User: Fold this.
Amino acid sequence: MATTQISTSRNINKTLDYVLSKKAHHNHLQTGAKFRIDEQGIQQVVKNGERVQAVSGVNIPVNKKNAFMAKMMMRDVQKYYKKEIGYVQAYSITQSFSDKEISTDPKDRQQSKELCHAIGVEFARRMYGKNAQVVVVTQCDGKSGLWHNHIISNGVCLDGKSQRGNMKKWNNIAKVSDEVCREFGIKPLGDGNWERNLSMKRELKAQGKYQSPIEKRMRKQGVNMRKDEVISKIRTVRDDESIQSFEDFKQILQEQHNIEVLDARSKKNPEELRYSYDYTNKKGLTNTKVSRASTLAGEEFQLTPIKEKIAEKVAKQQAEKEDKGLYYDWEIDDNKDTEISNRIADLYNDVMNNQEEEELNDENEELLKQLEMEVQENESRGHQENINNHEKNTRQYEHNQHHERIQRTNTTTTARSNERSKDKDDGFELE
Assistant:
């Protein structure tokens, strides 16, 4: 089937030397090789085939005879814009065809060569337009003898900018290749693979399961990915019992793990949070990387899923407290005086624990309702007034509790006194 692959090169001279070398990797009749059968019946090569069948340039004047000059012409552009060092020098695309798409029969050699080369040249023109230097090299010397094109493009465009966007995206490359093939009367056997690949890629990203080819290779080699560490830390902080809000989540990530939560870059997708973190590159230098939530774990680390996960955890914690009957359902808004609210809630919990789950009497029940109303009306009253009222109510509450303890003590004392009197009476026997 017609397939496309893309790779980068930081040495354009070596890349072009490889695809333009004269010696064929494998001799086939369609390469121009000649064979004879010796006395033992073994096939012997009489004449080696040609590795390079055809060469054309797009935005660069080269052909099969002067193809070697492409190296100098491309390097001149890189040097002119001072990008000859430290930049990707070339992109290499391999466009391959099955024998059902382009015949490998030696009788069809010339026709097959022209068809394969024409497809490669048109593909290059459509991909790069007038802004990039491209060399198209047609070969058929692979182990299988199938026809294919090597399409080598300068990493630095004629306007001085590095290749970008659709120039190097595999999905777009495969799409354009399929379009050109159909126009030349070839229906690719893998027609639409790029669409299916893109759909599958999107599904995996949404699930947070997508791995780039580089990530797959590094994980297979047992390399610890910084990305995996960041994902693990985000999940740990999100699920921590002490995290009660999204603001807590952001703060702890920053303070304890040096991972900063950034807002979405685009207003069109406010859900797409970004996470900034440090990593060490191959040279041992520490750099800062910003990854989108979808890149790290699909939808899992986006705004709403994070908030919902935290809210679910908080609700579960509250439900567990209520089941024990020791805690009051106390709601605290961000705009309310959280210090006062927390003090009241702590007071209530202490009281309930001291009473060993006994129900409050009507007087205390009413007082607690009064305290709750104080918090709820906090927005419309001054901060200092709230504090004064709260302290007053707290003193009243403590007074009531003291009075109840005295009552319980007196009641207990009386009961014990009566019991002792009864015991004394039982000690006398009337004759």
Summary: The chain has three domains: 3-206, 224-305, 328-422.
